[in-house]
Amino acid sequence: MKKNDEIVLEITDMGVDGAGIGKLGKIDSMGMAFFVKDAVIGDTVLAKVMKLKKTYGYAKLLKIIDPSPYRVEPQCPFHRPCGGCQLQALSYEKQLEFKENKIRNNLMRIGGFEAKDIPMEPIVGAKNTYHYRNKAQFPVGRDKTGKLAAGFYAMRTHSLIPVENCLLGVPQNQLVMKTVLDWMERYKIQPYEEQTGAGLVRHVLIRYGFFSRQLMVCLIINGHSLPNSKPLIQNLKEIEGMTSISINVNEQRGNVIMGDTVHNLWGSDHIEDSIGGVKFQISPLSFYQVNPEQTKELYGLVLEYAGLTGKETVWDLYCGIGTISLFLAQKAKKVYGVEIIPQAVADAKRNAEQNHISNVEFFLGKAETVLPQFYSQAFESEKSIENEQGMLHPQIIVVDPPRKGCGEELLDTIARMQPQRVVYVSCDSATLARDLKYLCGRGYRLEKVRGVDLFCQGVHVETVAQLSLKKNVCK
Ligand code: SAH
Predict the structure, then answer these.
(1) Which end of the chain, N or C, is surrounded by fewer C-beta atoms within 10 Å?
(2) For atom 16 of ligand 1, which residue has the closest CA?
């Protein structure tokens, strides 16, 4: 076997990034596994070998010889070159199965759990599997012909394929993008060029409140001000629902999208939205879940797993703009939130006020420093007041970290604080599995785990796990 060989593969599995996996030769443990992008489980395909490693390889899909019964017609013509919707050609039912398997496999492979010990509840699927996103971030650049464009970078190239009507987003995105591009054309505003670092406009961030119908536009620019901004603002504010127009400064090379500073150009510095009756103010830099309908399900599940009666003290670590904290606060005695982004903490405090929720307090800083520091200081000075308040010994700790998960320092502190329950909300079941393994080695038992699909058509999945403290555990 060598590069460029053409092979027939039966696709029997799919990898974590959604590529089809087929084994060449007998389907046994000795077979050589090939990853084939755009092939789905159940397909028989003709593929060309592109890269060979010792026990596996990568092959390019040439032809689908026998299509999988799970195949559906992808709705977006760009789904293959774009690569953002890796599962679009797979039926939604099968997408959910893929995600459940991914969670289970990670718990077994990384977490060391046995299949029989994984108390998995059925994944929460979505009703609307397209047009569910409340947030879009379009890169601005030039297409192959040099024309201004916004859309996505075709894989391994620096030319943009113009797609302003991504089917995951809201229809308003198109109008906003047309307005921005027309203005750039007219006033000769240059798009940012990754290779040289020249040019001004890098990305356009759009957020839409599904409930409030408020619209936010933030231009991410390689500079501190926007020339000829007046006509842009004039045209943008004509769009129905426009509430906030701002710029974000990002002069760094590299692929981080947002910089740290936001200047408001027009209207409010935030939009509002609400989930399950709780109102939220959202600034350009704050994290807010992208699928509001499924977020309601997610937070409902967190509340269920927290099992609150009204008497509990709760820590909500990685709290963002206080979304989960405020949900919990309605059923708890007191909730303490910790978050690293100052704007998000400011939003969280405003959100508590707006909703007249007074039994929450927010701390700015890293969860992995705030909690251990607080714990050791409180311990050393034997602050009995805090102790009485239950801060040191909360009944529940909720964590919702970014993809890298919680650090060991934080998990160690959690284990020493001994809450009765830990509710872990995760956007990456690999790091979740690693962290659950740690906590289960420190006196906790995995009680329930459940996926919630917030990213239909894509490969990511949110997971919520409930852990309880086993009895008679020494610190
Ligand atoms: N629970 C919130 C936010 C979850 S996203 C919600 O559902 O909306 C993860 C959050 O963790 C983000 O707001 C991010 O800014 C924050 N974050 C990232 N690293 C952190 C750290 N080390 N300590 C505290 N917060 C952190």
Answers:
(1) C
(2) 318
Residue count of the chain, please give it: 475
Place of tokens 């060029």: 193
Residue nearest to atom 13 of ligand 1 (CA): 320
- One DSSP character per residue, 292-323 reads HHHHHHHHHHHHHHHT--S--EEEEES-TTTH
Q: What is the structure's pLDDT at 161?
A: 83
254: exposed, middle or buried (C-beta count within 10 Å: 0-12, 13-18, 19+)? Answer: exposed
In terms of Cα–Cα distance, which of 466, 100, 146 is closest to 306?
Answer: 466
* Residue at token pair 């910790």: 338
Q: CA 267 to CA 246: how far, in whole Å?
A: 9
Say yes or no: CB of residue 344 within 6 Å of ligand 1. Answer: yes
Q: What is the 3-state secondary structure (H, E, C) of 221-241?
A: ECCCCCCCHHHHHHHHCCCCC
d(CA 119, CA 450) in angstroms, rounded, equals: 8
What is the spatial distance between Cα 139 and Cα 188, in angstroms, rounded to a whole number? 17
CA distance 448 to 466: 5
The pLDDT tens digits for 118-127 are 999 999 999 9
CA-to-CA distance for 307 and 305, rounded, in angstroms? 5
**For residue 413, what are its two tokens?**
């502190």
Residue 332 and residue 341: Cα distance in Å, rounded? 25
* Chain-centre distance for alpha carbon 157: 25
166 is catalytic: no
Q: Do the Cβ atoms of 85 and 166 come closer than 8 Å?
A: no
Distance (Å) from CA 4 to ligand 1 centroid = 45
3-class secondary structure, 405: coil
User: What is the distance between the alpha carbons of residues 366 and 373, in angstroms, rounded to a whole number?
Assistant: 10
398 CA to middle of ligand 1, Å?
Answer: 12
**Contacting residues for 364 by C-beta, under 8 A, at least 6 apart:** 338, 339, 340, 342, 345
pLDDT for 67: 97
293 and 260 Cβ atoms separated by less than 8 Å: no
Q: C-alpha distances in angstroms, 96 versus 28, 48, 80, 451?
A: 26, 29, 20, 9
CB atoms within 10 A of CB 235: 17
Using one digit for the tens of pLDDT, what is the confidence trace for 268-280? 999 999 999 999 9
Q: Which residues of the chain have pLDDT under 50?
A: 27, 475
Burial track 297-313 (b if 16+ CB lie within 10 A, e otherwise):
bbbebbbebbbbeeebb
